[in-house]
Amino acid sequence: CYTIICYLKKIFLIDSSILWIGLLVVYLYFTITIINTRIYKFWINNLMFNKKIINVKMASFLFKKSLSKINIKYPVTPVMLELLKFWNLAESIYYSPNTSIIFKTWFHSGKFFIIKFFNSIKLKISVTNTSWNSLKKSYKRWFIIKFYYFLNFDLNMNVNKMLTEYKT
Fold this sequence. Notes:
Blueprint: H1 2-12, H2 16-35, H3 38-49, E1 54-57, E2 73-76, H4 78-94, H5 101-120, H6 132-137, H7 139-152, H8 155-167
Antiparallel strand pairs: 1-2
Helix pairs in contact: 2-5, 5-8
Transmembrane segments: 18-40
Keywords: Membrane, Transmembrane, Transmembrane helix
């Protein structure tokens, strides 16, 4: 990987961090295709939900602005916690004024692959005609829904921002 990145950096004069993100997206894509087999679906579901559960007060970025003041504790596995920590860091870089348009494009493709990953292990849940209180009773479903909404939250707004910046 390091040799490929050095080679591409010299040819295309691209920042190496962007290339690393690109390789991560490709790696995620291959992971998704592997997980599509039943054995891996069972394994990843086991890893995320059936291991020892820790109780964590989730950060306000999981909520839309109107809900940001509400403090609710969610049971969440260490794997999901690490995913959220990484994504929170990525979002802070994204909203930095010095962030390049290329990183922002990779950021959105990363969002797409994580959503695809959740879909591939049958974790996308429809919330039509279901009250929030009944969802809270099932912590596993509640957490997945909030995480899924977080990934989709203001995606169109960010894309419009990107296009505006690109035109200027």
